[in-house]
């Protein structure tokens, strides 16, 4: 009896999450998929806007401190004071601002789908998604809303894992999410891979539409 390759790199809980997601996903129609994709796109766009704003504020914070406090600048010939510290603060506040906003908006969206009249199919999907993997879900629902060939196959019937290579095997267990194991959004129902181009990856990350024919 052949062993399901997904169960080799996923824990029992992770594999069950994959099955739950598959079963909920099968009940969606095209409009449901487009609704989810649009909501995820909005979250990504707003999160990046907040993240970049926080990053800019963090970057200029040391310089603004000396300006507002009217204290002598340690390096008056520099436009930016403490450039290394400013850079660290900028990156730190960008990442924190983006993650906190994504989590807040994602949880808010999960609550919004319970409003009357509720869509049980869409609700079940939101309960089986996590904000940490919002990029994979966004790509998946954009692609499946335009092309059903990208709809995930039953993980219980997997005979070979698309992304089960040596790199994934080294990450097996708690470090692997089922979206990585099944290549969510990157593989069609024949097991063929369709990677996004660099431009589309940037657009997806920043919450903009990706190519419908990719």
From TrEMBL:
Chain ranges passing through the membrane: 49-68, 80-100
Protein name according to UniProt: Transmembrane protein
Stored InterPro entries: Pup1-like
Keyword vocabulary terms for this entry: Membrane, Transmembrane, Transmembrane helix
